[in-house]
């Protein structure tokens, strides 16, 4: 049975690996953090990392600024303050992320102008990816945004703020939901119209959210009955296509009824 303390170390180690450290570097860094200061032998005993690997690993961590070395006999390795570790890792992550985004933007510019429009319907899987696509579509809206959401969890705080900002910019924003908690998210945002769906608008139990932007782009997400890796939501989105125009027509018809009630 895994102890809570061991479980915390495992979670932190996995997080450090995602931030760019090797598994061994993560184990050694956490071991020194636990000991405060230690020799290579003590680190090896505490982390189950062979002492022959500890030497090279501590050198790498020292170069990253994640530990201090006291040149005594034998050498002692000292933990860096948690706040300093956070600053170093955050800066490293942001630099790497900037490098990736810059390259992706460069590659996007190299695409042919109609590279994306060749496909009518695009698929996005997973809550975070769908949230990102929704934010992108909402951010690019010029005249009108209509968002339908099954429940509050499908309208994260950053979307509430973004919708309020777009409404303040003069974009018409309408939120439709039969979930009272979802509508309450916009209770204090006068520029956003938050309404319940009309009776004629049927609610499919699998639909999670529906977004229409400028009567041209549409995102329609559904709940996956048997999700893989916790990604319970899958979305289809399209712009200026037959699929988009069909959904826009259906939404506009139902919306006109709702606004008249």
CATH superfamily of the largest domain: Endonuclease Chain A
Number of strands: 10
What is the CATH architecture assignment of the largest domain? 2-Layer Sandwich
Order of helices and strands: HHEHHEEHEHEHEHEEEEH
The major beta sheet can be summarized as: 7 strands, mixed
Shape: elongated
- Detail the poorly predicted runs: none
Give the % helix: 40-55%
Mean pLDDT: 84
Number of helices: 9
In what range is the share of β-strand residues?
A: 15-25%
Organism: Halalkaliarchaeum desulfuricum
Protein name: TrmB family transcriptional regulator
Domain Transcription regulator TrmB N-terminal: 18-82
What do you see in this structure?
- The protein has 2 domains: 4-83, Orthogonal Bundle (Arc Repressor Mutant, subunit A); 122-260, Endonuclease, Chain A (2-Layer Sandwich).
- 49% of the residues lie in helices and 22% in strands.
- The protein has 9 helices and 10 strands.
- It has helices at residues 4-18, 23-35, 40-47, 51-64, 82-110, 127-139, 157-168, 180-184, 242-260; strands at 37-38, 67-70, 76-79, 122-125, 144-149, 172-176, 192-195, 207-213, 217-228, 231-239.
- It has a 7-stranded mixed β-sheet with strand order 4-10-9-8-5-6-7, sandwiched between helices. A 3-stranded antiparallel β-sheet has the order 1-3-2.
- The model has no long low-confidence stretch (mean pLDDT 84).
